[in-house]
Structure formats: C-alpha cells, structure tokens
Amino acid sequence: DNVFVQLLCSIQYRVVKAHADDAFYELQNPDEQIRAYVFDVVRALVPRMNLDDLFEQKGEVAKAVLEELGKVIGEYGYSIEHILMVDIIPDPAVRTAMNEINAAQRLQLASVYKGEAEKVLQVKRAEAEAESKYLGGVGVARQRQAITDGLRENILDFSHKVEGTSAKEVMDLIMITQYFDTIKDLGNSSKNTTVFIPHGPGHVRDIGEQIRNGLMEASTAQINVE
Predict the structure, then answer these.
(1) Domain that holds residue 202
(2) What predicted TM-score, i.e. pTM, was given to this entire model?
C-alpha cells in the first residue's frame, strides 16, 4: 500500500544451559543482535502484504519471525520462546482514512437495513389498510342489508295496517322521514363534515324518482336478459 507502519514486537528468549559459553562469548550485545535480526525479517516480509492483511495476519508475521530468528540465534546459545506482535501503528493520515472508510461502510450497511425496515413497515401498513377496507366494506354491506330488511318490513307492515296505500306511497313517506332524520343528525353536532345535497322538498321528490327509475330500469334489464 506504500504507507509507513510501526510494528511493536515483544520477544521472549532465554539462554540454553548446554550452550551457555556460546551465549556469553559469541555475542557482545544479544539484545541489539536479536533486534537487528527481527528488523531484517520484518522488513523482508511486511512490504509484501497490504495493510488490511497485516492487521488480520499479524500472528502469521510473528510466527515467521520466530522461525527465522530461532534458526539464527540458536547457533549462539539462545532460544526464542515467544514473539508477540503487540501493536501495528499506521501513519496518522492512513489511520484517519481507514476510520473514514469503515464509517462509510457502516453507514452504507445501516442505510440498507433502514431501507429494508421501511419496506417491511410499508408492506405491513398496506396489509393493515387492505384488511381495514375489507372489514369496513363488510360492515357497510351488513348495514345496508339491515336497512333494506327494515324498509321491506316497514312497507309491508304499513300497507297491511293502512288500507288504500300503495308500496310507492309508503316508500315516499319513508324517504321523507329519513330525510328529516338526516337533517336532525346534522344539526345535533357542529363538527360534522358530511357533504349534504340540496334539501328542498322538490329535490327530495326528484331524488326519490331517480332512485325508483333506477330500480325499475335495473329490473327491466334483468327481465330482458332472462
């Protein structure tokens, strides 16, 4: 990666009793000699790795140093016990860049998770809305069925009890009654948002005729189809 790094190594070594004379006479300054060999191995190995691999494989670096150093130092009466790569310190600018890359990757991953969560919420919201509309439709259908049944019973009952009245006259009376009930309900609350059609008697009669004509046309069309 063409960047500078500092590697902190901890080396544990001891003198081999059988070669104590070599350890005493062969090397004047064993610490400096061991340090020089470590530097040589590290400088030969680390430049062939990129920075990410160095962080991930610092144990392999320590193992390679241990093998090479053990071969050389063993001839001088020393035994290398352990080598630990304590820390890897890149250049401050490189460290800042690595942190920014890591932060960007995490933000990208977080945005993906956030998008998936919003997708799930939208799906659930749509499912709930569809279920609500379905249940609302079922309720409206039942309400209209109940109104139809009630109107039929009222017409039949009124026709039987009041002689000389036709079903049309009873229907007109019921529609007028419902019309005034609607006006009453609207007047009971100041917060109603219902849009109400013109309420003159003539308009009520026109609406009644439109409803009856629509029913008659539907009935005629059904007969023609049959």
Answers:
(1) 166-226
(2) 0.41
